[in-house]
Specification:
Blueprint (H helix, E strand, L loop, with lengths): L1 H51 L4 H24 L6 H29 L3 H24 L9
């Protein structure tokens, strides 16, 4: 009987921990959605402006992405993960952002070339695809807390 109570307590404890972890994940994802949304506005708006000025899609996509990455790092550090914006984190963030850039620009260009979609709409598809990948990279690598940081 004591083993059954012990098992029940362990299951309840594991469930509570799991729910708290899921809640924390969802809160971070929601915050990242809004900070990423602000960066996406910078990215898409910058891309549209550069495109309107006659700059071709490829360099316009890279330029607008770079500006948006800087905005996103500062917002993500403060509002999503609530950690200091350090040089080490910025370096890791840029590595993740470069991977995201590859996804973003690659999806944008493939969508333009293979599906004949308007470049501005294709850019939004590229941003959306990179959004999910970048969130996971930031969560798992860039802003992962060290064991010594847990309370």
């Amino acid at each position: 009987m004591a083993n059954l109570r012990s098992l029940r307590r362990s299951l309840v404890r594991a469930t509570v921990v799991g729910l708290n972890s899921m809640r924390n994940f969802l809160v971070k994802f929601l915050r990242y959605f809004f900070t990423g949304g602000a960066a996406a506005i910078v990215d898409a708006g910058g891309f549209a402006l550069l495109h309107q000025w006659g700059i071709t899609s490829f360099p316009a996509a890279i330029t607008s992405f770079a500006v948006a990455a800087i905005v996103n790092f500062h917002l993500t550090s403060r509002f999503v993960f609530r950690q200091r914006a350090t040089g080490r984190r910025f370096t890791l963030f840029l590595v993740a952002a470069l991977f995201g850039l590859t996804v973003n620009v690659g999806v944008t260009m493939l969508t333009i070339v293979y599906f004949g979609i308007d470049p501005r709409l294709a850019k939004i598809v590229g941003i959306g695809t990179a959004f999910f990948i970048n969130f996971l990279l930031n969560l798992c690598f860039v802003f992962r807390k060290k064991a010594s940081e847990f309370g």
